[in-house]
Amino acid sequence: MKSHILGFPRIGSHRELKFAVEAYWRGESTETELLEKTAAIKQHNWQVQKQAGLDYVTVGDFSLYDHVLDLSRMAGAVPSRFNAGDPQSLDTYFQMARGDAAQGIAPMEMTKWFDTNYHYIVPEIEPGTRFSYSCRTLVEETRQALALGFKPKPVLLGPLTYLTLAKSERPADRWNRLDELILVYKEIISELAALTDCIQVDEPVFCTDLPPEIRSRAAAVFEQLHDSAGGSRLMLAAYFGALGDNLPLVASLAADILHIDLVRAPEQLEAVHQAWPRHKTLSLGLVDGRNIWKTDLEKAVQLVRGLRNAEQLWIGSSCSLIHCPVSLAAEKQLPADVANWMAFAAEKCTEVERIKQALLGRDITPALEENRAALRSRRESPLTYDPQVRQRCSGVTEAMRRRASPFSTRKPVQQRRLGLPPFPATTIGSFPQTRAIRKIRRAYKDGRCAEEEYRAAIQEAIREVVAEQEKLGLDVLVHGEPERNDMVEYFGQQLNGFCFSQNGWVQSYGSRCVKPPIICGDISRPKPMTLEWTRYARSLTRKPLKGMLTGPVTILCWSFVRDDLPRSTVCEQLALAVRDEVLDLENDGVEIIQIDEAALREGLPLRQRERAAYLEWAVNSFRLAAAGVRDETQIHTHMCYSEFNTIAGAIAAMDADVISIEASRSGMELLRAFKEFQYPNDIGPGVWDIHSPRVPSQQEIVRLIELAREVIPDEQLWINPDCGLKTRDWPETRAALANLVGAARALRNN
Ligand code: GLN
Ligand code: ZN
After folding, report:
1. What is the average pLDDT across 18-24?
2. What pLDDT, on a 0 to 100 scale, did the predictor assign at position 296?
3. Is the CB of 429 under 6 A from ligand 1?
4. Which of 49, 583, 599, 640 lies in disulfide reach of 557, CB 3.0 to 4.6 Å?
């Protein structure tokens, strides 16, 4: 029996990777210095795994930017716009990731890695792309690990997942290139096989609805990979869910070891065990790579005890640990009991090893006792069980999720109250977050600035934002969100049931890391969260001003969520807390309340047939948060994407009076969805791409609106940017909003 993990966080225990890479980008350090610093991170990671007692250290999980980009580099797939750049050159590599503003070269696209919050660089397969083995980093790293006395298990992203994630003009253009790509894999695998006795090939795509190209070709592909591995064992790792209907196919593949995810899909164990040949090895992912809670060691041991020969069993993490923070050792401020419920990546390595030890019959009684005590403390803590919250949840009725009247009745009532012109112009919420604002917020947080001074500064920022909007002539104003550095953290900090790590960073993309809030207990709202700032802002204007909240689904998706309750239940608790805030705002006279659900779509399960159930509880949560208001109160929501073709029904079911969405970048792509689906309520397709510093002209904005008018009736159309403006600066914001208001006025006068 062997123990291993599928990958370790690459950012370093204090985000060393971020600082090293960014210093290199700024020209403040040389390539040699960068590589020295990152070599230290790798060595440290290997050391952690070895010290935990794991039989292998994983190699190739490290990346200077992204592991999918690394594979493009290894296979020589540099898109032509990078001027035939040498894949080995670090500058070409970073250009591919980040583009080259000076030369006007766009970066490669980035998108979410399966259903995680990690973003990878999308491979581009052009007609002229030629795969060839072009970069030997993985072999060199494996050698380094050996030289340092570690036992390496190199990991490669598999060819089937790689091509599935790639983009090409037509899907066929990608799959036609499979044979050529396999030649590259054969070269690298045979080199690795000379150095190690096990090679991990990641194919998470097997936990998704498979493209037909994979069904027909997987067997031949694995046959070839297996041949090149020679005497070395090939591990096929399939994670992020159950193999499900792909199990018969996967079980027939020429791999020596199959790794499965038993955290996401514990129910598949029996079926996989039956299907996977007895003489082959099964690697069981028992320790959650995507969350921060301690594993129930006894339960894990029970699950697999006596399953098959110890020889044919390995114990591992469910997936790579890159989705977890590095180590609890850096946490000094978490409540001691709560910290004791957690395991970050380093601690998870130890958990994996302990499960193996127990299965081998070693006496690990003290470790098991400690684990049992931690789990008991969590179970019995008043934090994780608040009878009042539970009671409220069980009292939720269908009526609480339904507005008093249908939209057609609400709309005229709201119109009478608000008196808005046709094509009302508004923004999404945040305004430029200047250095001064960030500074004062940080000072306040660190206790370097008194309450009074802080409040005065925020009020001043609000005054400025309101005055600017009045001057610009926007119809529905916002307070600008100067008090928030993050749309989820701000609410988490004011809710019961959350806690915050000091150093719990997780890579989001490249050098960017996020520190997700942690939902550790039952959620409730002790007191109003946004009322005071909203009230202050409203006192400064006679125009309607929207109260601005983050929705329950988004708070859930961008947090580490407790794993002892279904996500749908946690989401319902969040919804009730947001509902309280909505009602407080309404009682205070706020006429319009926006509940952002930026993350609703990214919470979609990987498998088609699980989506309806998710959408049902997600939409129900939103409705629970929103529907308590009277007809005359207008509910807005906002979403940061336009592809809602597949979820249009669910979005309509949210029954917000007004929705704003991203649309300008794709040139009103939403038109397609609207051809098939008549969105019943009001809608503001974004007409200014706020992701770019470019200021759109009034004419450009008018053109986009004209496109929208082809499918959206004028009475339903709002005029707004794509998203919040917090990353923009004031001069461009003023200029673009002036054009936006100008466009709305021009339309009204026509
Ligand atoms: N109200 C938020 C803002 O304007 C919405 C941000 C988002 O959708 N990501 O910043
Ligand atoms: Zn947005």
Report:
1. 98
2. 98
3. yes
4. 599
